[in-house]
Amino acid sequence: MPKPLQYDLIVIGAGPGGLAAADTAALLGKRVALVERNPVVGGAAVNTGTIPSKTLRETALAISGAKARAVIGLDVSVRRQAKIEDLMRHERVVKASEAHQMRTLLDRYGVMLHQGTGSFVDPHTVRVTRPSPPGGSFDIRADKIVIAIGSTPVRPAVFPFEHARVHDSDELLYITSIPRSLAVIGGGVIGSEYACMFAALGVRVHLIDGRDTLLPFLDPDLSAALTKAMERQGIVFHWKEQVERCHAPRSGEVELQLKSGNELAVSNVLVCAGRTSYADRLDPAAAGFGLTPRGLIPVDEHFRTTVPHIYAVGDVIGFPALASTSYEQGRVAACHAFGSMAKEALAQYLPAGIYTIPEVSSVGLTEPQAKEKNIPVVIGRADYDQNPRGKIIGDKTGFLKLIFDREEMKLLGVHVIGEQATELIHVGLTAMMTGGGANLFLSTCFNYPTLGDLYKLATHDAILKRSELMGKAQANLSRW
Ligand SMILES: Cc1cc2nc3c(=O)[nH]c(=O)nc-3n(C[C@H](O)[C@H](O)[C@H](O)COP(=O)(O)OP(=O)(O)OC[C@H]3O[C@@H](n4cnc5c(N)ncnc54)[C@H](O)[C@@H]3O)c2cc1C
Ligand SMILES: NC(=O)c1ccc[n+]([C@@H]2O[C@H](COP(=O)([O-])OP(=O)(O)OC[C@H]3O[C@@H](n4cnc5c(N)ncnc54)[C@H](O)[C@@H]3O)[C@@H](O)[C@H]2O)c1
């Protein structure tokens, strides 16, 4: 084998975590190699997960005519005539454009992309096995290494994934017709998002989950409102259920036998039962670090593994396993590896954005979490239909819920359900990042009419509730 090429940094995996680490190190003037087994960069975020699912959601909303129905009360949906190509066209365009843009940036930053599967030879050497043809392998070496190999869908043994109408979330992107009916297994984030998207297309959707609550990490008001909204869309929930048998004949309906004894017959099955990482395939023992029992890579607050020059970021280290946080982790790891203070830590508050219909977003403490911590709080709530912009867009169910600490009126949590929730959250997130609260919202002039103005309305609500809770005089005297 020829002498290995030497770099300052090798990154394995070109998803959000790996791209951010590579770009950041290159901006710091380092020689960077990025190893990616796929012919395109972007990882699950661009090619199979985040961007495809969000693009499909937007297309489904357009096809369903949901916005027009809310505003003019007329059904202008084209869903009955919609074909699979109509659903997929925009998704193909958006993801190709994103992958191209990321690839162009790598070239601009001078990152050397090696296509192939990376694995450790020793703590400083990575073997790149090229896809065949032409096949073969070569070694590269670096002072520092970042692992960002991501995750893939869990495939419970009960489901025959070789069947053309039994899918995981990767295969879903290659369906050849819009399902007549769909059983979604797993009501986590992926399952809930896809259940909403297909329901919007007019597909009869069953959502089956082993738990008894939708997205139990959300503030209960949001989880309950989302459950109701999904039921209104026609989604049928099957809680505390599991699929015991899945019979998928070549033609005809797929039959599911549930733990309760209930049976379901549907045209398609989508399994969204979590994700897993294959870090063992990197040969971690050759690098000198171990894995958790779940196959994840343990890291410290700088995203360093137990081998100090090797870092790991993104899904391969587990929670929160988001594109948003993976990007940030990649930046922090690269800065730490090369002693840059540009980004020393992950932000204190990490938002969650869930692209169900309606959208949900959340940051900071939920009401039960504040109670658990014995923090006296006051809640401010403003409904979209109390706000002129909310009325204009016809969102009758959305709301913003703010959680303030009762004494100082500092903002502790923000929870939104409704159109643009994942954008609206950023006002509250920024307030929390700067330690702001009620005063900030009272003194800010928001555009009119906007959903942003809901922050002021919810703050007024909190102030009124606080007066009721504390007694008017005391509330006016205390400072916030
Ligand atoms: C359907 C779906 C929807 C999602 N929606 C959202 C969302 O709305 N918002 C959000 O923030 N997150 C979302 N996520 C999560 C997000 O996609 C992931 O958290 C994110 O992509 C993880 O980034 P990563 O860099 O860790 O890994 P990945 O994006 O998985 O990238 C890993 C890369 O490493 C490559 N690779 C693996 N092994 C090797 C190897 N040995 N050698 C070389 N290359 C290798 C892979 O080919 C891949 O390109 C969603 C995920 C899914 C599946
Ligand atoms: N908008 C977003 O931020 C977003 C969107 C999609 C995915 N993601 C990320 O992708 C990852 C994976 O998402 P996911 O939804 O696949 O996993 P998840 O772990 O969030 O949810 C899996 C769900 O499936 C259920 N389940 C598991 N096995 C089951 C079975 N055999 N029968 C019935 N129910 C079963 C679980 O109870 C759980 O509710 C998450 O880490 C998430 O953060 C994020």
From TrEMBL:
The record places domain FAD/NAD(P)-binding at: 7-330
Which InterPro entries does UniProt cross-reference here?
Answer: Class-I_Pyr_Nuc-Dis_Oxidored, FAD/NAD-bd_sf, FAD/NAD-binding_dom, FAD/NAD-linked_Rdtase_dimer_sf, Pyr_nuc-diS_OxRdtase, Pyr_nucl-diS_OxRdtase_dimer
- Name of the top EC class for this enzyme: oxidoreductase
Q: Name one Pfam family in it.
A: Pyr_redox_2
Matching entries from SUPFAM superfamilies are given as: FAD/NAD(P)-binding domain, FAD/NAD-linked reductases, dimerisation (C-terminal) domain
Which compartment or compartments is the protein found in?
A: Cytoplasm
Quote one Gene Ontology molecular function term: NAD(P)+ transhydrogenase (Si-specific) activity
Where is each Pyridine nucleotide-disulphide oxidoreductase dimerisation domain found? 351-454
**Which residue ranges does UniProt annotate as crossing the membrane?**
none
Swiss-Prot/TrEMBL keywords: Cytoplasm, FAD, Flavoprotein, NAD, NADP, Oxidoreductase
**Enzyme Commission (EC) number:** 1.6.1.1
Cofactor dependency: FAD
Family affiliation: Belongs to the class-I pyridine nucleotide-disulfide oxidoreductase family.
Purpose of the protein: Conversion of NADPH, generated by peripheral catabolic pathways, to NADH, which can enter the respiratory chain for energy generation.
Name recorded for this polypeptide: Soluble pyridine nucleotide transhydrogenase
Classification from the root reads:
Bacteria, Pseudomonadati, Planctomycetota, Planctomycetia, Gemmatales
Q: Which gene encodes it?
A: sthA
